[in-house]
What does this fold into?
Amino acid sequence: MDAPERRRRQLALKEQLAVERQRQKAPGALAAALAGRVPPGLKDTLERAFCAAFRLVFQKGAGVIEKTYSKEELRAGAARLEQAVEARPSAVNLRRMEKGAAKGGAAASIGTVAEGGLLGLLGIGLPDIPLFTAVLLRGVYQTALGYGFGYETNEERAYLLSVLCCALAEGEAAPRWAAEADRLARRMDGQGRLVIKPPALESYIAAAGGALAGAMLTAKFVQGLPIVGVAGGAANLAVYRQVLERARLKYQLRWLEKRAEAAGDQEQDRVEGKERWSF
It folds into this structure.
């Protein structure tokens, strides 16, 4: 068993344990304490705001986001690291790939807490949602590029949104979203062709908007109040880190699964070739 296969098994177990913790997770203390103070219509308002922000970034924001990093350099770096792993499949080269994929998210997290904290101090809660969504997607975009994947197509967007839902889900929704992300990855990376049309993408946008609204409902309510709102800004960073941690896990595991499947196909071709020549 080579180093990539050992790492694949480690990450698969890590995800399995994380999903089980989410499945058993109870509501947070802050959310429970402030649940009665949240206006009845706020969740719907937040969901609509997050869904609108996803549509805005998908339709018009990618070009702006890509001005903050070089997509070509990230792709080229991922390709070089992948070649290094293939040439020498060692734990050292795998760690280099992990570090390369994690660089962008750490820098973006500073801006995440800054934008949330500043707007919270001013008592402005809802207007920062498009900005927060753009920063969040920027981190996931860079993670995807770090493992050689894109984010421009509806299919990759559906996968990205599934990963987001997987990161934030609680209860029985956690294993469902983990399985959905894996299903999409398998369809895109080898087992059949995947086509996500705009109406289908809307269902993923709605789910992700609901997941973010649920995760930040109490925090955004607090962030709508002067001074106390700084707690909402800190929650922005907590949610950002939660999503980015799962994104790194899912994209790396997806890359390793794709590599393992390709290696299996090559081995099968080799065996079949030997059988043909044996007659």
